[in-house]
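Thread: assembly with ligand

MN 10:42: here's the input set. Chains plus the small molecule as SMILES. Want everything predicted jointly, not piecewise.
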Amino acid sequence: MEEKKDKIVVKDLYKIFGPKPERAFPLLEQGKTKEEILEETGLTIGVQNASFSVREGEIFVVMGLSGSGKSTLIRMLNRLIDPTSGQVFVDDRDVAAMSKDELVALLRKDMSMVFQSFALMPHMSVLENAAFGLELAGFPREEREKRAMESLDQVGLKAYASSYPRELSGGMQQRVGLARGLAVDPSIMLMDEAFSALDPLIRTEMQDELLKLQAEHRRTVVFISHDLDEAMRIGDRIAIMEGGRIVQVGTPEEILKEPADDYVQAFFRGVDPTNVFSAGDIVRDQQVTIIRHEGGGPRVARERLISQDRFYGYVLDANRKFIGVVSVDGLKEIIKRDGDAAAMDSAFIPEARSVHIDSTMQAIIPYLTGSPWPVPVIDGDGVYKGAISKNIFLETLYRVDPTEADEPAADAS
Amino acid sequence: MAEGFFSFDEAMYPLEDWIEVVVEWLVANHRSEFQAMKWPVEKILWGIDHFLNWLHPSVVILGFVIVAWRYAGVRTALFSLITLIVVGTLGMWSETMTTLSMVISAVFFCTVVGVPLGIAASQSDNFAAWIRPVLDAMQTTPAFVYLVPVVMLFSIGTVAGVIATIIFAMPPIIRLTNLGIRQVPMELIEATKAFGGTRQQTLRRVQIPLAMPTIMAGLNQTIMMSLSMVVIAALIGAGGLGVPVFQGLNSLQVGLAGVGGLSIVLMAMVLDRITQSFGKPKSK
Ligand SMILES: Nc1ncnc2c1ncn2[C@@H]1O[C@H](COP(=O)(O)OP(=O)(O)O)[C@@H](O)[C@H]1O
Ligand SMILES: [Mg+2]
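BT 11:07: finished. Tokens for the full assembly:
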């Protein structure tokens, strides 16, 4: 890899949440864990002792499980969160030490951010949203609309300029989020799980979009992800976070060949990940979902399953709460039996049970082995998050068999 | 009978006297300042009152119908039309216009003072914590209790009535402005900050616009509370629809009180329906 200038340099960065955060430092020095410190002092270690640099023009992916401090870390780069201690140099200027005015000037000119939740302004049109950064920076209307239009064009949404965010699909909304970030023409883009809320097909599409944009105009991108495939696909280099610490930084190949510790290994190799990963880490929202409502009877549901070439469908209520699993055959049977009076509920497979998003892979095994249908996963509110098939499960188990270690890496280039 | 400390038969300290001393001291030493506060209220009130009573009733009715139509739709427009004609035919037109002008001026001052206070409360947890008990007290103190000090400080009449109304009706708009701004999703504030938005810009461009429906709900409550207080203010010599109710009460003329009461209810319904539609997406 050719040597490039460092664009962002992070030195000894800490974020400790809670009153009088300096109380945590001596405990950290004694080598106490995040949990022990929380127990003793009530302080939460967001990020500890992070040092790394991001090179100009690269996509730097920060990966880690939920709660490992990724969002906290990226928010210290633009001071949405003030560091407890440490330095963040952007083009050799310490962001952590900047005055409010200097920071505002930097954010308006040089850095933009794309959010997991899109964070679009519901009261503004797509064009106004895209122009938002420029508006804050004080550009006159004509110029900002012209530039916003160009960036909407880049993400293929020019035709929707006068729509409102709520009228667009998730993928399109995030394109607007991307356009908003591009419109200010920053040299750095921060993306916090920017594509995680999108379903897998759209997510891949957006990754391609990002790579295309990078090919046209290289920016320095810090990209947060909890998805290995995504990190491998778009990352020039990857940093792995665990418990607020950065445990390894390297190219995808480097990390694959020499994982720094068991945690990293669990991410990348088949070293019993069943206790490291939870249902939420491997769940995919690719199954056919059927929202139960007045008009949609078993016939419609069956049609949809057949047209999508799926055998099982996941029935949800209007709030996406999981209700039951139906199969093509089961639906056919009750349609035959009950004719027009057929009710969806009587087609539910009685043995089909859901698992909680925090269950470990280990805990899911009995459900998986006992059922031919992918096991539905719900969150604490009963909302359907997707399903886990045997294939996905096995794929995670043998994600990177040491003998084939190069295969996903080749995919990343 | 309880003994000792817990024999709560008589006051153990003369709070009653203390309140009297404070209010009397204010009257003795600062009455002129309080009287000066009447000036802007008086100007606005008389301006509106004269204007409304000068307008031909058909023009006022037309105005209501147009506003109702624009913001709340055909049904409310029709409802306003019929209601106002009924009020007119009851012989209560001029009283209604006076009540309306009292409500409008009270609400005007509530908004001018209340919205900035609500914004301030949304920006500072300290200020919010401090103002909250004050608002609780303002809102739960029975309306009649205001009347005594108001009379002592501002004397009697319609202007004094409006001042009592302003105090009584201000809390909801402060509360809901604060609430509306605080309810704006954190992620939108973050996004604004991330693009270099200052606190001012965040307020002006994101928080206040998104809080508008909630602020409007506060305005609606303030209007309804003003209307109820304006009627009570007849007790201290304010004009308007409270007068026939009050007279009816004094001389046991149930018919007169009934007609006044009916007009108040009808006005309340019109104002409620129209102002509830502010801040909501337009219906057809
Ligand atoms: N504002 C906050 N106050 C207290 N603790 C927080 C706050 N934000 C994050 N944390 C804690 O810091 C840790 C890291 O969180 P976060 O950076 O959001 O992780 P990630 O983005 O990797 O899921 C978590 O333990 C989280 O509970
Ligand atoms: Mg996060």
